[in-house]
Amino acid sequence: MKMRYRGITLLEIIAALGILAFAATMIGSVFSNFSDSGKLIEAHSGIIGMLRDAKSRTLASELSSNYGVHFQSDRVVLFRGDAYNAGDSSNEDYVLSDRVEINAIALTGGASDIIFTRLQGTTTASGTVTVRSINNLSKTRTITVLPSGGIQ
User: Fold this and answer.
1) What are 73-78's contacts with CB under 8 Å, separation 24+?
2) Which InterPro entries match (predicted)?
3) What confidence tens digit (pLDDT) does each residue in 86-117 have?
4) Domains and their CATH numbers in the chain
């Protein structure tokens, strides 16, 4: 009587590992896209928060001053006064995640600052600021600032 050995062949092991690698890649891709979307939403909310904070401080006449927000591709800076000064120690930075960037600043007059005026809360520049995912350039969020000081 002949004995038959039952086992797994090398080909079956390679096929199983290939299927597992493919599944892991697909799952990783889904989680990466989900994470990118989360970072984009977080940046959008953070920028709106900085704008609202600047407007609130201005309307409250905190330190008898205007407040504004300066935009750069990787950060947003809340500042006090009539103009942005990079060296001012009172500046408050909101640094964006390395997965998102500000890719379009379309403010009146080509400005990169929005300054709120005391008592009325109107702005010196209005327009839009667009934030996008670096890994998926089609994912964007736009913030609109109206001349009246409204933030959308």
Assistant:
1) 73/101, 73/102, 73/103, 74/101, 74/102, 76/46, 76/47, 76/50, 76/102, 78/50, 78/53, 78/54
2) N_methyl_site
3) 999 999 999 999 999 999 999 999 999 999 99
4) 10-145 (3.55.40.10)
